[in-house]
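Tokenise the fold.
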Amino acid sequence: MSGRNRLSVVVPAYNVEKYLPLCIDSLLKTEGMDKAEIIIIDDGSTDRTGEIADEYAGDHGNIRVIHKENEGPSASRNLGIMEAKGDYIFFCDSDDEVIPELFSGVVKVIETTSDDIILWDSELLYETRNLLVPKNRGFFSHSGLEKTERTYGGKEILETQLRKTGDFVATIWLGAYRKNFLTENNLFFEKGLIHEDELLLPKIFIEAQSVHYIPERVYIYRIRSGSIMNPGSSDRSESAKALMYIYPALYRYYDEVLAGDPLRELIEANLTKRYLHMIFKYRICRYGYGKQIDKKLLWRTAGRLQDKLLVMLLYLYAH
């Protein structure tokens, strides 16, 4: 690599021999990536993922590989934070891709910025149909923000989206994050936790002083069967366990850091909406968590009539 290393791309990889070349090739095709580093973290893969990663590292001087025992993506990402030499870190999932001609714009911004976060949008790719979702769906877009490139405050970007759309996207791969911002604010992933983005992203935005938003669908998120987030199984016990940890933890966090802040009412109402959605989506009560759900808290923070009705259902069925 030549010049100063501004960007590190951290790619946690576990049994993705089919997808890893697509991911890495999309990064390598991006103009300016020769000045960045790519860290592939082989998380104890049992297929050819580790071998493929080593082959790429042998052919490209800006790629390095770390082989470790399987601990899950959170531990791999935390390791990536500590190993990264760049000023900014982008966490790219190993079964996803970037659009090179658009990601090159992100790389150019990173070359000159000092913002805490660089933010962008995403396309969706369904593996079963091999078809990009139409752009007007906007599933992983930051709806409510101006569709012009500009910089927001961290809390401002949350409040803007919540007031205009009632929601925000909590997904780690939709941004690049200044390394010192993460480490100085102790913003690491909870080891062994799935749905970990939902716990960390609100904290990242609340702590951020500046967020530079690029209104382009830079990232391609692949939805495939058998992945952590789409397991293709009726057993959702791990998700239920994680969510019963994440949501109460976020209420406590908001109580601590947003006391007296107008954002608190908005973000708690959103949290309650998300929490109720997850309770019914993953049928959390079937796993014995009914009594642990704080229904009084949900009733107090619910901002919509439909959410109040769902809380009433919980009073009837969550025992």
In short: The beta strands are 7-13, 37-43, 63-68, 88-91, 97-98, 117-126, 131-132, 150-152, 175-178, 211-223. The two ends are 59 Å apart (CA to CA). The first helix runs from residue 20 to 28.
